[in-house]
Amino acid sequence: MLGRSAWGIFWMARYMERTENIARLLDAGFRMALTRGISVASDEWRSVLVTLGLDEEYKALGGEYSGPAITNYILRDKHNPGSVLAMIEAARTNARMVRTAITREVWEATNESWMLLKDMLARPVKESELGNVLDVIRRQATSVRGAMEGTMLRNDIFNFARIGTHLERADNTARILDVKYHVLLPSVAWVGSRLDNAQWEMVLRSVAGERAFRWLNAGALDPKGIAEFVILDGRFPRSLAYCYAKLNSNMAWLVKGYGFDTGAGHLLRDATEQLNQTSIAEVFEYGLHEFITRFLATNRRIAEAIAADYRFIA
Amino acid sequence: MKSATLSSFDEMIDAEGQVRPAYAGYREWYDAQNPKWLERQGKAAESVFRRTGITFNVYGEDAGQERLIPFDMIPRIVTSDEWTRLSRGIEQRVRAINAFLHDLYHKREIIKAGKVPERLFLGNEAYLAEMVGFTPPGAVYTHIVGIDLVRTGTDDFMVLEDNARTPSGVSYMLENRETMMAMFPDLFTKVQVQPVSDYPRALARSLAACAPPAARGSDRPVIAVLTPGIYNSAYYEHAFLADQMGAELVEAGDLRVVDGRVRMRTTRGWKAIDVLYRRVDDDYLDPLTFNPNSMLGVAGIMDVYRAGGITIANAPGTGIADDKAIYSFMPEIVEFYTGEKPILKNVPTWRCSEPEALRYVLDHLPELVVKEVHGSGGYGMLIGPTSSKSEIAAFEHKLRARPDNYIAQPTLALSTVPIFTKAGLAPRHVDLRPFVLVSPEGINITPGGLTRVALKKGSLVVNSSQGGGTKDSWVLAD
After folding, report:
1. Residue of B267, B276, B279 to mutate for A, most A C-beta atoms under 10 A
2. Shared domain check, B227 and B364
3. What is the spatial distance between Cα B111 and Cα B93, in angstroms, rounded to a whole number?
């Protein structure tokens, strides 16, 4: 396949994954704002911006730290190149560019997402509509991924799409965890407080893990257990361990199919092995924030190595 | 312009108000349908087009906007006999065009014989000196041709234009049929229509049969479609054809000349392309040979081409054959190379470069259609009968300044086919573009083609860029 097509589908998958995760993050923030007081809510909203790496930009624009202002900035502001609308547009542009690499169903699902959301996000989203909009974003991302899963040939094109999805998901999960721990907890004394519990719940909600965690832990919420679940539980599809298992299997198919290994392949295998050998005790000993910072840097390096080794760009 | 002044041939209904034989089966079906239901189906079709992204980009105003070409659900139908006659004429004409191109770039017998004046191509931008003395693989110049036909009577089909460069619209031919079959499956069990769906396979076969010397020995030549990119007006079609052929859709940035071959950057390295179906103009093909500022082409591709390392379809320099100034010589060209009288007529044409013709044209501007010799897409033309006095005066000024840049034709009473409206069937003017594939193995003409229809009542301009629509085009089975 063309290097440009690999690049296009890799990023298309990343954009779609990111829109979905942003929707979850906003949904969790929205819920928090509904159940806690105003001052807590504004902290929450700020944490959403920090997670997305948009806090500085937003501050520079002088926006207020309220739900409607921040959700609109994240969803549709034209000053925000990383808005959901911009990303859906980019995903759709990429899909158009790699039209011959995807099936008609994948294309139609992507195109339909764009048509729907372009419409829904044409005007500021009212608070009463936010839930519905977030729902549509999540469902559209699911429908694109479902079309890929159900209709695409299991070849290198599919591998690059899956690698894009799971690199992005690992990145997003790690960021959500980091912000929660680093930004929202001003002091250790807060650990175990009611506020703290609510925030851990928000972490779970942001990664669609609240139900699974409840089932596994008979309803108990303990921060360490949640961190372990989100980082190391290979059964949970948004955990770092799961994402890296998927990255590995897709990379293995590429290596096998192409008949040659790459630097990206080595990097990925090393990182996976390291992750698999880590216990949650070691993570906290090392420092959760430090662990995640290192994880995100490795994740980024792997993405760059893939782009270079598979000739994404001339 | 109002065609009321011209008596048009209606393809569905004859002068006595009877349904013509070609439409008999269809009308029987149509009359049994509930108009409300048909209207809903029409709306459903539009949303399918939008969802599948069958759109084209319009240049100029609303730049970057994607639009739908309106689709009308009433098919345009010709009988098998009519089609047989038409396709004989098309084949004859396409053979002549290829022979003409070969001759023009080699011995120029036709000029020596005094049938076509030398000045017509020596100063013509579409004529490429780089092609002189070179024979493309398989001796095919125009691998893909679209012949624009208009009809003025029962047996009167005329060629309005030959498209020998990069004719577009074939994806609409295919999608229109798909849409019709999805909307009205029962209709196709009642009326037997010759299928068009083989076109992409035929195109791939035809291109593969023209593989260059460098591809000899490989049983499956590598085909790629070269597109200017996603903002090109016909991008949908480029992607569609590549997808249907199982070929890579490449952009200039993917290509490079490496070790004497044109290669594309793949995830495994640089892979050689044998046949390039290019949808960029000659001028942009090779910045080393042609336009040095081109970002759409491949530096050095012309050298590789001349050395037998790649087939370019259509061949560079074919545009000289569909030039409107050459068009007026087509009857002579057909006769010169085939030894037969042309089966398809030309529309009578005045060459404004000739003083006597120019005088006539200037005297009759309000009733003529005047076109730029190199123009296309319905831009830069004058339609006398619909133009105001001041528009005609302005055009006359341009015409006098550069008469050799124009040709003129009578305003034709194009045939009409009904379109579906809320108020019922309403006749509208149409043309027809059949698609022709040329390879050393022969000439393949898909039964049907693209019918373009002027949606505005009385309008004669069918171009999609000017608000025209399309119809599914049927050739009935024997």
Report:
1. B267
2. no
3. 19
